[in-house]
Specification:
The complex is a heterodimer of chains A (202) and B (453).
Chain A: E1 7-12, H1 19-32, E2 37-41, H2 42-45, H3 57-76, E3 80-84, H4 90-100, E4 103-109, H5 112-118, H6 123-128, E5 150-153, H7 159-172, H8 186-198
Parallel strand pairs in A: 1-3, 1-4, 2-3, 4-5
Chain B: H1 3-11, E1 14-20, H2 25-33, H3 38-44, E2 47-52, H4 60-69, H5 73-76, E3 83-84, E4 91-92, H6 104-110, E5 115-118, E6 131-134, H7 142-145, E7 146-147, H8 151-157, H9 166-171, H10 173-197, E8 202-207, H11 209-222, H12 228-249, E9 254-259, E10 263-266, E11 269-272, H13 273-279, E12 304-307, E13 311-314, H14 329-345, E14 356-361, H15 362-365, E15 377-381, E16 385-388, E17 397-398, E18 405-408, E19 412-417, H16 431-438
Parallel strand pairs in B: 1-8, 1-9, 5-6, 5-8, 11-16
Antiparallel strand pairs in B: 2-19, 3-4, 6-7, 9-19, 10-18, 11-17, 12-13, 13-15, 14-15
Classes of the chains: A alpha/beta (202), B alpha/beta (453).
Bound molecules: adenosine-5'-diphosphate and magnesium ion (MG).
Magnesium ion binds at residues 19-20, 41-43, 84 of chain A.
């Protein structure tokens, strides 16, 4: 078996732009292909590894610094590492890229209005009411990536479409084996169903 | 083979598994008593030969998936030969892509073992291994069936046959036998080629021909048909010879295992569960019937529907696109009602005896992250009653098709050379950790099966 080549897929974007959703969808696909996968998610990491940190610029930097360290270890040990963090600052992401090596940046592009409309966790409402300080997009800046490997437009793509875009690009980048075509062509699928029917299995 | 590899091959523990699909323990006992399996008879005393349970539902795709992962379906995701696409009324045929777990041969590959795997169900499309993998009977072509792709040449040279053609087999018993014999010969030829010419630590050959033979000729054997019973036994003799060929090739360090995934019995009736659900008003089918009704034709007012074999799904709000039944109390009440009605009402049309042995709620059988994909109720039939998911049938039961045999749950078999089995009651799920143990490879923590030795 060809040794799995480690990489970090770094999802960046506003809160509610789809980072967690897509990281989970990609995780499922990669596992199905038999890859070793780890997922590091902002919401989870902040309850453990970086429990002591807040959302000031300094603390956000520390949060990413620690996660980057873990992602580096996983990546160099051949794990597909999926990181989903707002990670709003360009310079910080550039540091993670340099540190980790096999780094694939995924920009979850989604207009702020859509994210506010989605308000998956009810945080925008609070932020807009002034109940949360330093909230990215509302009271703190988000710097979009200039040269991400992958861009998904989650306001106009379905989760499946965005996932497919990511997987195709990973294949092009050489991190995934090309799929050996469709499982069944239409004709083959009919033949397989007929076979099962002949055996009384369906 | 170089001197060095010959030396190495001698010292490492190796395992070869021959899968005889659908071969019942009780049948092999009888064949031995009748002197029909002389090779297996001489092997038998050298190891442990035991009766083994299958899984629910006991069809090959589920049973072999449980075998190869050592896990229950809620951890590997294969619940039948057909399944729903989540959130739709579309059906799909689960393949190796749908299997959400590492397999025995993938774990062995990771441990640096070289594996050869031939024809196991639900291994198409082939996933990577350290060695060779030939997909199972639902592989569309030889080219697409093999990993690495280069092996297709070898298989073509060996005139490899993926599977007997079941439509030909339905035409006549003679054609069925011709199909089975041709596929069996190709299987043996290919198996021995790989045994003799390739290096391997683990080798698995799956014989599907037994299952096909039983489906089409079990009754003829059971009733001692003057023409076809002898020809049935000829195939068994051929399989026995294959076991002997493999056995005679093995050295001290190689453990041989012979196993099946479920048993077989004579089919009394096919039982159409959707006919019953419709009669009870739980399933609403359209007035205008297309030629072949599909799951997608299930009417929006339906409360329940069934897929092969004996799996009943509640048309649940929030899960099915046109879900009718509210989760919680309403769901539970309907499950209870259908379960007790199935036990009470599904009876043999002649004798009136119950056709259902047990109704399982899914959480009684399965546990794991994919439990949500399971059927809500799983009906386990009394032997002889084959539960079908066909829609729009005009009667509850039917008799007299070309298919004369059906699967049974508690009559699979396991023989392990040179070992004794320490466990009283066990299932196909327990074989995989046993193989890992024999090969000195650690058993992953999320495996459900136990080491049997
Ligand atoms: N193409 C898409 N990719 C990702 N999410 C999408 C997409 N389209 C719609 N969504 C929805 O957007 C929401 C994104 O939420 P989430 O993944 O929690 O965002 P984040 O992790 O960025 O805070 C989910 O409710 C998801 O279903
Ligand atoms: Mg998130």
């Amino acid at each position: 078996m060809a040794e799995q080549k480690g990489f970090t897929l770094w999802f960046t974007g506003l809160s509610g732009s789809g980072k967690t959703t897509l990281a989970k969808a990609v995780e499922r696909e990669l596992r199905q292909r038999g890859l070793k996968v780890e997922r590091l998610d902002g919401d989870i990491v902040r309850q453990s590894l970086t429990r002591d940190l807040g959302f000031s610029k300094e603390d956000r930097d520390k949060n990413i610094e620690r996660v980057t360290f873990v992602a580096k270890l996983l990546t160099r040990n051949g794990v597909a590492t999926l990181c989903s963090f707002i990670s709003p600052y360009r310079e910080v992401r550039a540091r993670s890229r340099a540190e980790i090596g096999n780094f694939v940046e995924v920009y979850c592009d989604c207009p702020l209005e859509t994210c506010i409309e989605r308000d998956v966790k009810g945080l925008y409402k609070k932020a807009l009411n002034g109940e949360i300080e330093n909230f990215t997009g509302v009271s703190d800046p988000y710097e979009p990536p200039e040269n991400p490997e992958i861009v998904v437009h989650t306001d106009r793509e379905t989760v499946e479409e965005s996932t497919a875009i990511i997987l195709r690009r990973l294949t092009e980048l050489g991190y995934l084996e090309a799929e050996a075509g469709e499982v069944y062509s239409e004709e083959e699928e009919t033949a397989v169903e007929e076979r099962l029917r002949a055996l009384g299995y369906i | 083979m170089s001197l060095f590899s010959r030396f190495r091959a001698k010292r490492k523990p190796r395992v070869v598994v021959i899968g005889l699909d659908g071969t019942p323990y009780t049948f092999v006992r009888r064949a031995l008593e009748l002197g029909r399996m002389p090779n297996f008879a001489r092997m038998l005393g050298e190891g442990a030969f035991r009766r083994m349970n299958s899984v629910h539902p006991c069809v090959s795709s589920v049973a072999w998936s449980c075998y190869m992962t050592g896990k229950n379906p809620a951890k590997h995701g294969i619940y039948g030969f057909i399944d729903r696409k989540p959130g739709t009324y579309d059906t799909t045929i689960p393949t190796s892509r749908a299997m959400r777990s590492e397999t025995l041969w993938e774990i062995l590959s990771r441990a640096g073992k070289r594996v050869i795997v031939m024809n196991v169900p639900v291994t198409y499309p082939p996933r990577q291994v350290n060695g060779v993998l030939i997909g199972g009977f639902l592989s569309p072509t030889i080219e697409k069936a093999v990993y690495p792709p280069g092996e297709a040449e070898t298989l073509k040279r060996l005139k490899y046959i993926i599977d007997a053609d079941p439509w030909a087999a339905r035409q006549s018993k003679d054609k069925a036998l011709a199909e089975v014999n041709a596929a069996l010969e190709s299987r043996e030829r290919t198996l021995l080629h790989y045994m003799d010419n390739e290096e391997w630590d683990f080798l698995q050959c799956h014989v599907m021909e037994t299952d096909r033979l039983y489906h089409f000729l079990w009754k003829q054997m059971a009733t001692d048909d003057s023409v076809y019973a002898p020809r049935f036994w000829q195939v068994i003799a051929q399989i026995d010879a294959l076991l002997g060929e493999v056995y005679d090739r093995l050295d001290e360090n190689t453990t041989m295992i012979v196993m099946s995934d479920h048993g077989f019995c004579t089919l009394k009736y096919e039982v159409y569960i959707n006919h019953w659900l419709a009669r009870r008003g739980w399933l609403v089918l359209p007035e205008e019937r297309p030629q072949r009704l599909q799951l997608a034709d299930v009417g929006p007012r339906s409360l329940a529907y069934s897929l092969d074999p004996g799996r009943i799904f509640i048309n649940l709000r929030g899960r099915e696109p046109a879900g009718q039944v509210a989760p919680g109390a309403e769901y539970e009440a309907l499950r209870d009602e259908i379960a007790s009605a199935a036990m009470e009402e599904l009876r043999d049309p002649e004798t009136g005896v119950p056709m259902i042995a047990h109704v399982f709620r899914r959480e009684e059988l399965y546990h794991g992250p994919l439990l949500d994909q399971a059927a809500d109720l799983i009906l386990a039939p009394v032997d002889g009653y084959d539960l079908k998911g066909a829609m729009g049938k005009e009667t509850l039961t039917f008799q007299g098709d070309e298919l004369v045999g059906m699967h049974t749950y508690d009559d699979a078999m396991l023989w392990i050379r040179g070992q004794s089995i320490a466990v009283e009651s066990f299932s196909v799920t327990d074989v995989m950790p046993t193989v890992l143990h024999l090969m000195g490879v650690p058993v992953p923590g999320d495996v459900d099966g136990r080491v049997l030795l």
